Amino acid sequence: MGGRNGIREERNDGGSSALDDWVCGGGRPDHAGHGPTSRRTPHRWRHLDGGHPGPPSHRVLLGDVLPLQEVCRGGGKVRYLSVVLALLVGVGPLKAQSSLPTVVVLSTGGTIASTQSDEQGGYTSSLAGEQLVAAVPGLDQVAVIEVQNVVNVGSTNMTPALWLEVSRRAIIALDRAEVAGVLVTHGTDTMEETAYFLDLTVTSEKPVILVGAMRAASEWDADGPRNLLNAAQVAVSEDARGKGTFVVLNGEIHAAREVTKTHSLAVETFGTPEFGALGVVDPDGVRFYRAPLRRQSIPMAPDVVLPTVDIIPNYAGSDGRLIRGLLKEGPVDGLVVDASGAGNIAAPLFEAVKEARQQGVVVVITSRTHSGRVLPLYAGGGGGTTLHELGCVFADNLSAQKARVLLIAALTRTKDPEKLRAFFSR
User: Fold this and answer.
1) What secondary structure, in 3-state letters, does 205-234 show?
2) Known catalytic residue at 111
3) pLDDT tens string 228-284
4) Model confidence, pTM
5) Among residues 389, 316, 379, which one has the least CA distance to residue 349?
6) Cβ contact 350:384 at 8 Å
7) Superfamily of domain 7-288
8) How far apart, in Å, are the Cα atoms of 337 and each of 72, 136, 384, 396?
9) Higher pLDDT residue, 411 or 33?
């Protein structure tokens, strides 16, 4: 199922078991457990069509897969999950799972798919989506899982073009009657941006859920499997319908528009600072306590050419060099200026913003405070009132990165400042 490595069972005494021999190069153990019936037969994860790993999209019925403890790579091993479930011989998954809803997993990489690489000296995104879902005990009791491997990168390398591709696949999947929801496994660094883009562009009532991990899959206490199970539980919940795109980590459900990453290392990194989570995933199920009200849809064709939008920070002593450099290099369709306080910038930076506006560049104002709204309150060069008079658009309470996502989407419809203000006030 998407991998060329065997699966190894770890023993406390350091030896190998019949199952160990079978999946890491030996034959199938006999029913008495006395060892393989044929030795050194290379094992391949099998697909339902009986073929070897092939195209990036495969239907995976988890009852047919042995969850991983370690992924064998040549002579080396990578610890992947601390619990191994025994494979039930002769039990077909189709009958057991025929009544379950389908959940489509779009795998894009990130820490949840990362293992320690001795060659590269750090974590690398290396596991396929099939390997991720196979490592989650109980997932096959929640849904029939289908996996599509979109890309395998750290989320710092996600791009608007990849957002479009994920959106396209999600829309196609959700249009199928048997599909209850879509999970997107994703790195956490830019997860909130992808989530918001999907919230804007996927119009289905069925949920899209971004899920990741703060600890790599090769760590003994990896949080990815639990997060993935929780996300699937949300995907099949009737209460999740009509609420848009979520981020689900650490047992919490957050709205795409509101959520942000708040800590560089902690597993409880995602939060909604002003308003709190929408709900939780507890041992007894999914519980929602509120619904997101600030939602809008900006559907777009999969072949649309997305505009170029950059973010400019305001800081003590900031000037206009960054903006002028962007204007010189081009093209620039829009700028998000991450202002101070309620939406104010330094006077030299204001002069560069003025030049950008004269060239027809749309400018959106956000606040680096990360909470509260931006408003045109202060006068003087660089004050909020002068920015408003210049035709700048105030982004309500959106962060700079979220405002950039919305501006990219809105610019596919209009460049008129008044019409753009309507998008940012919804």
Assistant:
1) CCCEEEECCCCCCCCCCCCHHHHHHHHHHH
2) yes
3) 999 999 999 999 999 999 999 999 999 999 999 999 999 999 999 999 999 999 999
4) 0.78
5) 316
6) no
7) L-asparaginase, N-terminal domain (3.40.50.1170)
8) 48, 42, 12, 13
9) 411
- How much is the pLDDT for 370? 87
Q: What topology is assigned to 309-425 in CATH?
A: Rossmann fold (3.40.50)
DSSP secondary structure of 224-285: HHHHHHHHHHHHT-GGGTTS-EEEEETTEEEETTT-EE--SS-TT-EE-TTT--SEEEETTE
Place of tokens 């290099």: 329
C-beta atoms surrounding 73 within 10 Å: 14
Question: Cα(219)–Cα(202) distance, rounded to whole angstroms?
Answer: 34
List where CATH 3.40.50.40 sits in the chain.
Answer: 309-425
Mean pLDDT of the 396-410 span:
98
The rounded distance, in Å, linking the Cα atoms of 238 and 64 is: 27
3-state secondary structure 75-133: CEEEECCCCCCCCCCCCCHHHHHCCCCEEEEEECCCHHHEEEECCCCEEEECCCHHHHH
User: With bands split at pLDDT 50, 70 and 90, how would you rate the model's confidence at 6?
Assistant: very low
pLDDT given at position 117: 82
Report the run of H or E that residue 339 belongs to, with start and end. strand 334-339
> Cβ distance 181 to 173 under 8 Å?
no
Amino acid code (one letter) for 131: Q
pLDDT score of 98: 58
Residues of each domain in the chain carrying CATH 3.40.50.1170 = 7-288
The residue from 108, 111, 194, 245 that is catalytic is 111
Q: Alpha-carbon distance 146 to 235, whole Å?
A: 13
User: Phi-psi category of 343—alpha, beta or left, where left has phi over 0 and alpha has psi -120 to 50?
Assistant: left
Distance CA 267, CA 254 (A): 15
The DSSP annotation for 317-335 comes to T--SHHHHHHHHH---SEE
Closest CA to 23 of 45, 3, 51: 45
Instruction: Measure the CA–CA gap between 59 and 156, rounded to whole angstroms.
Output: 28
Provide, rounded to the nearest whole percent, the portion of the chain with pLDDT above 70: 77
Cα separation, 303 vs 95, whole angstroms? 40
Mean pLDDT, the chain, integer? 83
pLDDT tens digits along 117-155:
888 889 999 999 999 999 999 999 999 999 999 999 999
Tokens of 84: 């191994």
Instruction: Summarize pLDDT for 280-302 with one digit per residue, the tens.
Output: 999 999 999 999 999 999 999 98
Q: Which two tokens stand for residue 197?
A: 């883009």
